[in-house]
């Protein structure tokens, strides 16, 4: 291919070429970072919560009379357990995505500085079965290990509890490379022994970063007025069980407020509502940018084809084949888009640094850059194909005409 | 003359319909997306308390221990957003501002007196006496309470209009009894549907817009009766998570200072307080007391969620790329018309005339794009209003924003047309 004439032709349209390259660069920078955001959000939305998501339903109970909450929870749970189709129940204070987060600084030596903050998940015996958590090492809590949370005295139970079950991720963060079973941690004033490890459990609120599974179960009985009853049942029975659970509780004691009766699937859906909106907007923005860039490339190419009809005709007349003409426009486009991609890649990294500082975006993996470059380059080739084919169709006879 | 240029522009645009449509679409999409987000953020940045907001301040202290591994001279970074009980009470009782109040949000079950009505949860704030006068809350009836009531743990409550209506209908609520959680409260005031947007005095979270507080009762009373507190309780060290301790931050604190001089004096007072606490073995970090004005506070607390700000930047970035796109296309289009320029110049048209003629063509595209953008922005705002967020109901275009949309469209199109029209008119020797 005659490179020099092509460059000469491009320099005649310096400004236009520059603008097109600039557009490709901007699109590359934005689309790279938008893709990173999309990847981050989808990864978070796909994180396994650790609970049996298809089988779990729950409702929040607030009792209004000032009676003994422990006794009332026990009575409520006994009644809920009798509902046909319910395989396990528990009264709990926290669940993945329910935003009710009680975190404690966890030290690994007495009076030591906290290594990290982990969410305490507290519940009645049978919480593992009710939530469907998978124990991968150690054991469940023994009945004699349960103590009240003592919420009336500033949650003093944390200073008396003696056992805990942690997630595998938390164990690895606290005791990297060691067997966590039997190790002591210090969430309160006293040592707590790790007696079991579960594979997954997400915290009630997610953050960007590694700490989303910093979760530990304690054998502490919720004793506040507000508590969440979690019921496990077959997926097809969930709505019926929810309805019956509310009725059973109302019948047992009407002096209460039941709220947020929902399946775990609903809870998850609500939690990621904003992310889904954002995901849609990000996808729309990326698609819009690529479309506008493709339109720009195709539009400019078709102008140039019209402008150069005579020149094309002359080249055809002196022996250039249709394929040569097609190649010429494709190569020209590859040159311009390629010229835009180089600054585009740098711009993408710069924009990423800016976003990292202001929006908690992770660092852009370098693998994104060649992928984005290739995608934009292909987009350019696709966009130029129509005008280039039209150019190739210009008959040599055009050379003899004068406009 | 301009009419003729307009006819020329329309004729030229008609010659390449598809391209014209695409350019209008691109600029319309860019402007529509940008104006949607600018309108939303503009509505969220309104003054929640006109006339009073410039006198309201939030003091910030840092009673936390030294950061792990950090030397005492290192900058502290972000201070806690809220105060401990002991610091809030110290500032409250020092009376160094014109008015001052400590507060925290919470919810309480309400039990209607009438038979047959089910109990329900209401959202409110636990506050100290100055709250109502400091924020100039409009009372429909009655009033707030005084400092003595705070100290006495009085069982009194101020209701917002909605809750009063729900509990007592059209009958006067003052003096009536309302049962919150398991305690009877006497209604001493009813607010006239007070709902500042955002609820600036509360802890800033995603519920800052929308719902208003339904009741207000004395902070000490709520603590004594172990009411439910919402928000963030952050404790450090050992010694439990007691709300009345000096190592848990959870209280919002506001002061009213009528003049900048008073604000300056209050800053000095806060620094003195910090040093005084250091003398008593607290506040190990270097003195860094801060006092935020209301507007600065809302910005500092990131009232506008990061996602929304990101959406704005995304929309503006999109508009930017659309503009570059259109500049490129117009430039190519204009420069192709060398022949036309040659004829017009030969017939006596000045460079200025060429510039105006081509500028007109760009302006037509901009105007059409602006009209389309306005429609798309309405569509965008409609979709924002369907979001289940508190700010959604604010997403309306006021006349200022309407004008702004047109201004943006005109500016965008002029900017997009300027360069190509200029290049067309300075073309050297168009007849060569």
Structure report:
The complex is a heterodimer of chains A (403) and B (432). Helices cover 49% and strands 17% of the residues of chain A. Chain A has 403 residues and is an alpha+beta fold. Chain A folds into two domains: 3-46 and 274-400, no CATH class; 65-254, no CATH class. In chain A, the strands form three sheets. In chain A, strands 3, 4, 5, 7, 8, 9 and 10 form a seven-stranded mixed β-sheet that branches. In chain A, strands 2-12-1-13 form a four-stranded antiparallel β-sheet. Chain A has a two-stranded parallel ribbon with strand order 6-11. In chain A, helix 2 (14-46) packs antiparallel against helix 8 and helix 2 packs across helix 11 (368-392). The mean pLDDT of chain A is 91. With 432 residues, chain B is an alpha+beta fold. Chain B folds into two domains: 2-45 and 305-425, no CATH class; 53-300, no CATH class. In chain B, 47% of the residues lie in helices and 16% in strands. Chain B contains 13 helices and 13 strands. Chain B has helices at residues 2-15, 17-44, 85-94, 131-134, 147-151, 161-168, 219-224, 260-279, 294-300, 306-336, 338-346, 351-385, 399-425, and strands spanning 56-60, 83-84, 99-111, 120-127, 139-142, 156-160, 177-180, 183-191, 215-218, 228-229, 234-235, 248-256, 290-293. Chain B has a six-stranded mixed beta barrel with strand order 3-4-9-6-8-7. In chain B, a hairpin with a 2-residue loop joins strand 7 and strand 8 (183-191). Chain B is elongated. The model of chain B is unreliable at 70-76 (pLDDT under 50). The interface between A and B is large, with 57 and 50 residues.
């Amino acid at each position: 291919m005659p490179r020099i004439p092509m460059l000469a032709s491009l320099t005649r349209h310096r400004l236009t070429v520059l603008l097109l390259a600039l557009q490709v660069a901007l699109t590359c920078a934005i689309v790279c970072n938008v893709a990173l955001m999309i990847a981050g959000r989808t990864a978070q939305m796909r994180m396994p919560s650790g609970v049996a998501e298809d089988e779990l339903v729950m409702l929040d109970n607030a009792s209004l009379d000032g009676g003994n909450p422990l006794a009332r929870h026990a009575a409520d749970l006994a009644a809920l357990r009798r509902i046909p189709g319910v395989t396990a129940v528990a009264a709990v204070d926290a669940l993945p995505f329910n935003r009710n987060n009680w975190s404690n600084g966890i030290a690994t030596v007495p009076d030591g500085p906290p290594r990290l903050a982990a969410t305490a998940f507290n519940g009645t015996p049978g919480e593992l079965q009710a939530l469907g958590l998978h124990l991968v090492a150690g054991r469940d809590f023994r009945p004699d290990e349960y103590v009240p949370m003592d919420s009336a005295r500033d949650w003093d139970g944390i200073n008396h509890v003696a056992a805990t079950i942690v997630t595998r991720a938390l164990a690895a963060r606290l005791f990297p490379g060691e067997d966590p079973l039997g190790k002591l941690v210090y969430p309160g004033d006293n040592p707590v022994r790790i007696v079991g490890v579960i594979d997954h459990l997400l915290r009630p609120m997610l953050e960007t970063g590694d700490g989303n599974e910093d979760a530990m179960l304690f054998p502490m009985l919720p004793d506040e007025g507000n508590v969440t009853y979690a019921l496990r049942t077959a997926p097809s029975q969930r709505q019926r069980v929810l309805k019956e659970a509310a009725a059973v509780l109302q019948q047992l004691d009407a002096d209460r407020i039941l709220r947020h009766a929902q399946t775990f699937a609903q809870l998850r859906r609500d939690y990621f509502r904003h992310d889904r909106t954002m995901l849609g907007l990000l996808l729309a923005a990326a698609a819009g940018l690529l479309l506008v860039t493709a339109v720009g490339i195709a539009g400019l190419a078709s102008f140039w084809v019209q402008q150069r009809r005579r020149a094309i005709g002359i080249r055809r007349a002196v022996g250039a084949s249709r394929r040569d003409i097609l190649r010429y426009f494709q190569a020209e486009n590859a040159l311009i888009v390629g010229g835009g991609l180089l600054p585009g890649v740098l711009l993408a990294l710069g924009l990423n640094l800016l976003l990292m500082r202001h929006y908690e975006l992770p660092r852009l993996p370098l693998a994104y850059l060649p992928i984005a470059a290739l995608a934009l380059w292909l987009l350019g080739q696709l966009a130029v194909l129509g005008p280039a084919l039209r150019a190739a169709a210009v008959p040599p006879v055009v050379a003899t005409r004068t406009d | 003359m301009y009419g003729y240029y307009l006819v020329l522009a329309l004729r030229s645009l008609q010659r390449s319909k598809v391209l014209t449509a695409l350019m209008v679409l691109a600029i319309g999409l860019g402007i529509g997306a940008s104006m949607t987000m600018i309108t939303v953020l503009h509505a969220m940045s309104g003054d929640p308390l006109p006339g009073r907001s410039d006198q309201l301040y939030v003091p910030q202290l840092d009673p936390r221990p030294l950061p792990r591994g950090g030397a005492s001279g290192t900058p502290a970074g972000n201070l806690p957003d809220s105060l401990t009980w002991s610091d809030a009470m110290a500032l409250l009782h020092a009376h160094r501002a014109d008015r001052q109040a400590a507060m925290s949000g919470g919810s309480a079950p309400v039990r209607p007196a009438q038979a047959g009505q089910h109990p329900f949860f209401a959202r409110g704030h636990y506050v100290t006496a100055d709250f109502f006068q400091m924020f100039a809350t409009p009372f429909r009836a009655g009033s707030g309470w005084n400092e003595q009531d705070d100290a006495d743990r009085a069982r009194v409550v101020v209701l917002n209009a909605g809750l009063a209506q729900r509990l007592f209908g059209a009958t006067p609520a003052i003096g009536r009894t309302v049962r919150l959680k398991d305690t009877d409260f006497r209604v001493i005031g009813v607010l006239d549907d007070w709902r500042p947007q955002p609820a600036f005095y509360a802890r800033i979270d995603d519920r800052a817009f929308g719902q208003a507080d339904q009741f207000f009762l004395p902070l000490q009373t709520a603590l004594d009766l172990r009411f439910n507190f919402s928000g963030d309780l952050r404790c450090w060290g050992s010694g439990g998570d007691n709300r009345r301790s000096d190592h848990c931050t959870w209280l919002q604190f506001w002061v009213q200072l009528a003049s900048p001089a008073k604000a300056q004096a209050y800053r000095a007072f806060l620094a003195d307080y910090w040093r005084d606490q250091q003398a008593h073995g607290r506040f190990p970090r270097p003195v860094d007391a801060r006092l935020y004005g209301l507007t600065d506070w809302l910005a500092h607390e990131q009232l506008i969620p990061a996602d929304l700000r990101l959406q704005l930047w995304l929309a503006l970035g999109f508009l930017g790329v659309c503009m570059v796109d259109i500049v490129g296309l117009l430039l190519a289009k204009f420069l192709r018309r060398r022949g036309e320029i040659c004829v017009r110049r030969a017939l006596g048209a000045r460079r200025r005339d060429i510039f105006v003629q081509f500028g007109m063509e760009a302006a037509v595209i901009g105007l059409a794009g602006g009209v389309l953008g306005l429609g798309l922005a309405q569509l965008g705002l409609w979709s924002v209003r369907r979001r289940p967020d508190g700010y959604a109901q604010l997403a309306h275009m006021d006349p200022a924003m309407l004008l702004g949309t047109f201004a943006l469209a005109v500016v965008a199109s002029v900017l997009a047309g300027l360069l190509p029209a200029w290049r067309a008119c300075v073309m050297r020797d168009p007849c060569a």
